[in-house]
Amino acid sequence: AQSVTQLGSHVSVSEGALVLLRCNYSSSVPPYLFWYVQYPNQGLQLLLKYTTGATLVKGINGFEAEFKKSETSFHLTKPSAHMSDAAEYFCAVSDRGGDDKIIFGKGTRLHILP
Amino acid sequence: DSGVTQTPKHLITATGQRVTLRCSPRSGDLSVYWYQQSLDQGLQFLIQYYNGEERAKGNILERFSAQQFPDLHSELNLSSLELGDSALYFCASSVAGGRTQYFGPGTRLTVL
Questions:
Q1: A83-95 pLDDT per residue, tens
Q2: What is the pLDDT of residues A51-61, one digit of tens each?
Q3: Which of B104, B102, B112 shows the shortest CA–CA distance to B5?
Q4: Strands A108-113 and A10-14, bridge-based pairing
Q5: Pairwise CA distance, residues B93 & B66, whole Å
Q6: The dihedral sign for the CA sequence B57, B60, B62, B68
Q7: pLDDT at B92 over 70
Q8: B43 and A107 in contact by Cβ < 8 A?
């Protein structure tokens, strides 16, 4: 069965510093991979997704993620954190061969320090 | 704005009651998904409908049911409510065969 592990339920970075949110997946076949962001009292917004092709995926708001098959990872990065990046981030997977339901990780809350 | 709408935004009810949550997908999207978000369980997939037919089922309790109507809107029915059913319920939609799901703003259910 597919699963997603996000390392660190809370991550704090200073404004202007690198953001790195870690995600590892477990799947017999590389799945579709997603990062979603949830701002307080709002729904989930897609940041980026990996389906096929280039393993470095660029998303909205300056975020990007790299699919590493050998490490079964899909870490999310942003070179310079902004106060508006404070939110909860969810890594998610969807099976290529089966139905298209999404399995979410537990989420990482990103705190930005002034 | 994702284009997915959910009503109501907030719902407060008592144990044992029944409620209906409504979702309208983005224009043209045939698939509708329901998720539950709670502090202890995180985000859990409940059920998917595609063009009116049930397509996939997740951790949905027998007290919960859903349907998708000919105009493609969907309703999630929760009955015999328990305190533990208090959560955020999200609806998402996608195009036929698409893997990108667009989420609505959610319905916050509080069971007292």
A1: 999 999 999 998 8
A2: 888 889 999 99
A3: B104
A4: parallel
A5: 14
A6: negative
A7: yes
A8: yes
